[in-house]
Automatic annotation (TrEMBL):
Coiled coil: none
Pfam families the UniProt entry points to: LacI, Peripla_BP_3
Gene Ontology MF, one: transcription cis-regulatory region binding
Domain of life assignment: Bacteria
Entries under InterPro entries matching the protein: HTH_LacI, LacI/GalR-like_sensor, Lambda_DNA-bd_dom_sf, Peripla_BP_I
Keywords for the protein's UniProt record, in alphabetical order: DNA-binding, Transcription, Transcription regulation
Name of the protein described by the UniProt record: LacI family DNA-binding transcriptional regulator
PROSITE patterns: HTH_LACI_2
Length: 343
């Protein structure tokens, strides 16, 4: 009986050598036939090798290929969650930018848990990615130190830690622009729905808020600053806290469009309207906010530019560099902001 009709699956991972032995061809011939980067050969020998590989359960070892070639053309992207439109937009921008470079972006999610970030990174590294782009940086986590110690190329995106390569938006400027817009309209009681303290993006927007108030000689009131987790639900709860104040704000700046959407829900549940009773500003300019019943004034973040910068840093920077590239945001005024009503 011919060998191709009676071969036994080897124990453990099936290798090119196993396929070569079972098919009767040399390892180099089998490698060429099974290399997905090359045009698919359609002749009896090639079909025979592919049939044997399939019967044996051969799966190409990407990490081994990476070691041989020095590159797989794959970039690992780690985000907290793809249900967050901001993170989905970042990933799409990275995928498009990678495609223009002849690279392919693979995404993994962490739900903003540090341990999950480590597991996601390990899974991507095992797939042989050329490097990692992380939008999960936390001030209270030292995961990037571990990656650096292992000589794994990585770049941070949207958030930074002050020690690593990063491509981010100018968050202090964005926070300043949003708050300055409300001040220019005449608001003085401006509530802030800020983000988690471990995220430099949230801290930067808070910094910009404080700077704008200081410039306008408006005193900072701690009761007007309420934290959130960047989610719609947390934005709703934070807005409820602000609206229950005896001297409630006449405007709210939410440092994320999701939290602004949550705030809209809370404002409606209190019987108030935007902007007649309270003005509202978001941040990021996700697609839905321009199509809400009251289109949302927000700060636009140039995700495509940030993605391009992140890939440039990943592909070109030398090990040990801590260069940070910063993209400029812009205020997009819409119908959710207006001058405060006179009391």
């Amino acid at each position: 009986m011919d060998g191709d009709q009676n071969h036994h699956k080897p124990k453990g991972r099936v290798t090119l050598l196993d396929v070569a032995k079972a098919s009767g061809f040399s390892k180099s011939t089998v490698s060429r036939i099974l290399d997905e980067r090359l045009p698919t050969a359609d002749n009896p020998s090639a079909r025979h090798v592919r049939e044997v590989a399939e019967k044996l359960g051969y799966v190409r070892d990407l990490s081994a290929a990476n070691l041989r070639r020095g590159s797989t053309g794959q970039i690992g992207v780690i985000v907290p969650r793809l249900t967050d439109t901001v993170m989905a937009m970042l990933y799409e921008s990275l995928a498009k930018a990678a495609g223009r470079n002849g690279q392919f972006a693979i995404v993994a999610t962490t739900d903003d848990h540090p341990d999950a970030g480590r597991a996601a990174a390990e899974a991507l590294i095992r797939r042989g990615v050329d490097g990692l782009i992380l939008s999960t940086a936390r001030i209270d986590d030292h995961f990037t130190d571990e990656l650096r110690a292992r000589h794994i190329p990585f770049v941070l995106a949207l958030r930074q830690n002050g020690q690593s390569l990063a491509a981010i938006g100018d968050d202090p400027l964005g926070g300043y622009l949003a708050t300055r817009h409300l001040l220019d309209l005449g608001h003085r009681r401006i509530g802030l729905i800020t983000g988690p303290d471990y995220a430099t993006s949230a801290r930067g927007r808070l910094e910009g808020y404080c700077k704008a108030l200081e410039e306008a000689s408006v005193s900072l009131s701690s009761d007007l600053i309420v934290p959130s987790t960047f989610s719609i639900e947390s934005g709703e709860l934070a807005a409820e806290t602000l609206l229950k104040l005896k001297d409630r704000p006449t405007a709210i700046f939410a440092v994320n469009d999701n939290t602004a959407i949550g705030a809209l829900s809370a404002i409606a549940s209190f019987g108030f309207s935007v902007p007649h009773d309270i003005s509202l500003v978001g941040y990021n300019d996700i697609p839905i906010v321009s199509r809400l019943p009251v289109p949302l004034t927000t700060v636009k973040v140039p995700f495509d530019h940030i993605a391009e910068m992140a890939l440039q840093l990943l592909n070109n920077a030398s090990e040990g560099s801590s260069e940070v590239r910063i993209a400029t945001p812009s205020l997009i005024p819409r119908k959710s902001t207006a001058a405060p009503r006179s009391h």
